Amino acid sequence: MSLFWIVVHQLAEIEAMAASKKVITREDWEKKLKDVKIKKEDMNKLVMNFLVTEGYVDAAEKFRKESGTEPDIDLATITDRMAVKKAVQCGNVEDAIEKVNDLNPEILDTNPQLFFHLQQQRLIELIRNGKVEEALEFAQEELAPRGEENQSFLEELERTVALLAFEDVSNCPVGELLDISQRLKTASEVNAAILTSQSHEKDPKLPSLLKMLIWAQNQLDEKAAYPRINDLSTAMLEDPTV
Questions:
Q1: What is the CA radius of gyration of the chain?
Q2: Residue 242 — very low, low, confident or very high, per pLDDT cuts 50/70/90?
Q3: Percent helix, strand, coil in the chain (nearest 5)?
Q4: Is the pLDDT of residue 172 over 90?
Q5: 72, 51 Cβ separation under 8 angstroms
Q6: Beta partners for 225?
């Protein structure tokens, strides 16, 4: 019986806390938002940062002309970077490696993990195309020596080679390696490395700001009821539930 009253007491405290939340009307909230001054130039830079980082070169060029916002890197390098990314996404890993070396050979020379993952992706593509003997030879000659030097590389190699043990790879424990998401993961890693080599942020600022918005709203939810943005795609304010 005492446990029952403890639960009742806790529920009463929660209701009291909820009741004590400050309620902010839409009118007051919108007034507070209008008081925040954001320069158009800063917004333009944020948009340009996203376009450049994600590789939308045509959109970046058009936005540069319309807004007068200059990108912080040469837009021509975006085309080269996207060619590398596309090659990986299409499974043309050898071509991607050549393109990376043409851009900057130090990228792979100074990043053994990235080079291993590209070679691992080459192995995956050989297995995908049913080239079993070539895949085994490639794994033994190119990847095994790196696995001997790095335990995590060895574990990834073993997972990849395990694909050869299954006739129906769609139901095998490591079947996700043949999924398109694996190509995208490798392509994203290459993209980030190229950006870093160009002294550019590897991640766009806009998604980080949206994550900060979500975090701030979650913190504020504990203290107040206010017009909230629940759909980030529309950024529409929804009246507080009281």
A1: 26
A2: low
A3: 70, 5, 25
A4: no
A5: no
A6: 23
